[in-house]
Write a structure and sequence with these properties.
Elements lengths: L4 H14 L21 E15 L7 E21 L2 E20 L5 E9 L3 E9 L6 H4 L6 E10 L19 E12 L2 E12 L2 E4 L3 E5 L2 E11 L5 E11 L2 E3 L2 E2 L4 E13 L4 E13 L6 E12 L3
Antiparallel strand pairs: 1-2, 1-17, 2-3, 3-4, 3-5, 5-6, 6-7, 7-8, 8-11, 9-10, 10-13, 11-12, 12-15, 13-14, 15-16, 16-17
């Protein structure tokens, strides 16, 4: 039996990694279309750590860039009845600390960047329009998943800390919108999920040095294989592929199209009726840029309401 809590716990941890310059915002997210009783509330607090390489524009005199990124995301989600179908709305506020180093290409000196504050917050709206009816807590007790098909949209706002005189920041100074479509099929104790999406970006009109930076859409697909264990414990293995996202500065296209794949593991451990813990680990399998990406995360979740 799934729960919408997994969506926002994963989104909270994804937001922690998404703000990092060392990795594209294409985190592996199992159980994002799972069902839950209407009217439930979920509060999530997490910690995530990621590190990896940074590839700079060829015109910038920096090389050998690396970052270490720590985030402390807070998230709230509420399950909804959207025209008789199960849905949810959630908000993630990722507070973060970033440390980065790079080498000046000409002089060979190492430069360093440290910054703490708010990264770009994210809002997610989702609806399952097949196989996941909106149910009360009493009716949900008898619900058994078969095939679920759903859609979602994630909007990231440019409210994170941003300095146009720096190449590496917590915020991006632009909006992004990522619509997605997914399906989830239960097969006994296993659930198989497929999910695809595309992220569109607005233009950053105050990029490093007073320039204008635009980015092409970034396309992504992922698959997750989830196993339900006794006592509410579940684990998942997932893999994701992404491509696109090439940029241009002042209308001049750069040779920085993204392409890569990553894998991840997730373990969810219930503590009691209202609390649970979730552990995540992700690593880049290969990438056109930033090949050494890796991330670890943990989240605590508290749920209430909806007759639960």
């Amino acid at each position: 039996m799934g729960s919408v809590k997994d969506t926002l716990i994963t989104l909270a941890l994804a937001a922690a990694v998404a703000g990092s310059p060392c990795a594209p915002a294409q985190s592996i997210e199992p159980r994002t279309y799972a069902n839950a009783p209407v009217g439930m509330n979920f509060l999530i607090a997490g910690y995530a750590y990621s590190e990896g390489a940074v590839t700079f524009d060829p015109t910038v005199p920096l090389e050998n860039g690396r970052t270490r990124y720590q985030s402390f995301p807070l998230a709230y989600v509420r399950s909804l009845d959207l025209g008789g179908n199960a849905g949810s709305i959630g908000l993630v506020l990722p507070f973060a600390h970033l440390e980065g180093t790079a080498t000046l290409a000409d002089a060979g000196d190492e430069v360093e960047r440290k910054v703490s504050g708010l990264a770009d917050p994210a809002l997610r709206l989702a609806v399952n329009f097949l196989g996941a009816p909106a149910l009360s807590a009493a009716d949900f007790a008898a619900y058994r998943q078969d095939l679920i098909v759903g859609a979602s949209v994630v909007i990231t706002a440019p409210f994170g800390q941003y300095d146009p005189n720096r190449l590496v920041n917590l915020g991006t100074n632009r909006w992004s919108v990522k619509p997605g479509l997914g399906l989830s099929k239960a097969l006994g104790a296993w659930t198989v999920e497929l999910d695809g999406g595309v992220t569109w970006y607005s233009t950053n009109h105050d990029f490093f040095g007073g320039n204008t930076r635009a980015q092409d859409p970034l396309y992504s697909v992922q698959a997750n294989f989830i196993h339900q264990f006794p006592a509410g414990v579940w684990g998942a293995f997932g893999a994701a592929y992404y491509a696109g996202g090439g940029t241009s500065v002042n209308g001049v296209a750069k040779n920085d199209r993204q392409q890569g794949a990553r894998a991840g593991l997730t373990l969810s451990l219930p503590v009691d009726r209202h609390h649970s813990i979730k552990l995540t680990a992700q690593s880049g399998l290969y990438a056109r840029t930033g090949t050494s990406f890796k991330a670890l995360g943990v989240a605590w979740e508290y749920r209430w309401g909806g007759g639960f």
